[in-house]
Amino acid sequence: MKIRFLSIAALLLCLFAGFGEPVQGKEKNVEKLGAEVIRSAFAQLGVSEGKSSQIACLSNAGYVRYQGESTRILYDVLQQHGEISLGKGNLLPVHTGPNEPLWFAFVYKKSSTELLLTSVVPNEEGEVQASEAINIYVGKHQSFEPFQEVLGKRAFAVVTFANGWANGMPEDMQRGALLHDHFCSGVITGYFTARYILNHFPLNEGEKYIYIGAPAWCQDDYLIDYFNLTPGKHGYYTMEYPWYRPWTTREQVYDNLGGIIIRFNSKEKSGKAAVLRFDWHEDEFKAFIGEPELELNWKEQPWLHVWYNKFFFSRLEDTDHFVSVVKLKELHSKAELDALVNLGANPLQEILGEDPSWN
Q1: Three-class secondary structure of residue 287 per DSSP
Q2: Which of 69, 190, 279, 287 has most Cβ atoms within 10 angstroms of its Cβ?
Q3: Residue 336 pLDDT greater than 90, yes or no
Q4: DSSP letter (8 states) at residue 152
């Protein structure tokens, strides 16, 4: 009986050992891949370890799987072999869906006008090849076509992120932009809006924020992240309204609308709602870049995002210069809150009045 028990125990140990080896082997393959990616990228950039403050890595590692395995371990590999980490702010995990291929983009800030990039997209067989280094520093009127040749559909996201990082993007702005998956100028408008809300609508005991994207644009992803206002916790709502369209009542035209912030106390059933306004100060931007006659075409001129971001960076403390209140509404009941957020609600009409031209 004793011999039979020992035989069964030995068999179980063999089975567990057999199941464990492939998992460990695959994990080691992902780690080996990461080390090879770093080696190839650093060789193309012409840098060695010890220059972590001038190097950053953008990647969708952690969001996707490689050969069926998690890629989150690559965060440790990048830190160990490349001195690239979340804590240092030079590891930028770009939010992507689970079915995209694993990719990396390494950037090296060589000088104020030299931002070298190499792209690495390992194939399913584990082969690694880094692209030749190119300068992705974005000057005024810079074409993005050379970047698209190397990066494809990721060009706008990677180039705007890399230039933002090189220009000193603040930590929490970086986080919201990574959720948004690219660093357009709309993300920074959320930075200003968030500071305005904190300064002018601080929470009192028992209160919470609710934000309505009316209109909604890129800043909303920043606000959702910064204030933790997820739809699942009933902190964020939106309505389909064009961000460029003014709301026009019979008495007044409300332009440059910037969303609605609500501060509400559920226990006391009272609060306050404010329609915000965001002024882009386009004339000031044109003066900033020395081109007063420039026509702003965001779709055809992607370089505008990088330079508008520089303009915003130069005014990060001027919150009230960009954001203001259009109109306030006191809330005295849960029913008045519901009139702003419930299915079929039109919060702009509730606060500003009817726009006869809006259906």
Answers
A1: helix
A2: 190
A3: yes
A4: G
